[in-house]
# Entry
Amino acid sequence: MRDAAFGCDWVGTPIPFQRCLMFIIATANKDFRLTAGKFVPVSNVTMMNVCNIYVCMCVCMTVYIYIYIYIYMYIRI
# Structure
């Protein structure tokens, strides 16, 4: 984006247009980083961590439910 803005034919254009191009070039120089909550960078690693936590929670809840059912059936007998 930065190179395309600089490469356009901007010589001789009005000053407001040149200022807009300078703004585009300055903004395009900043690194883009997707974050969650503005403090955790989102990447493949963080996505896999979230998935692993979710799977672990599902497994733990399933085991807890099976134990609860087993205890309920044992007490009922």
Observations:
- The beta strands are 35-36, 40-41.
